Amino acid sequence: MKKRNRDYIENKVYEHRVLKRLSQKDLADAVGVSKQTIYVMEKNNYSPSLILAFRIADFFNVDVNDIFTYKKGNDLNEK
């Protein structure tokens, strides 16, 4: 039986936020989301919309690919 892993977006939001010495609330307020959204995003439990991803990249003045990386899931054989 095959099990398909899900594709996901890996991010470096935490690293960028800490380098700027910002709290999760500071970043959330700056990009228009809740603190909880930043929290789950940093834990890689939430993939942001494209709009939010670009807002975050713009806030940090970097390319969106410097923060967000697409990871493709693989098909695994389940035993």
Automatic annotation (TrEMBL):
It comes from the Bacteria. It comes from Cerasibacillus terrae. Keywords: DNA-binding. GO terms for molecular function: DNA binding. CDD domains: HTH_XRE. The keyword DNA-binding applies. Gene3D superfamilies: lambda repressor-like DNA-binding domains. Residues 13-67 form the HTH cro/C1-type domain. This is Helix-turn-helix transcriptional regulator. PROSITE patterns: HTH_CROC1 (PS50943). The keyword DNA-binding applies.
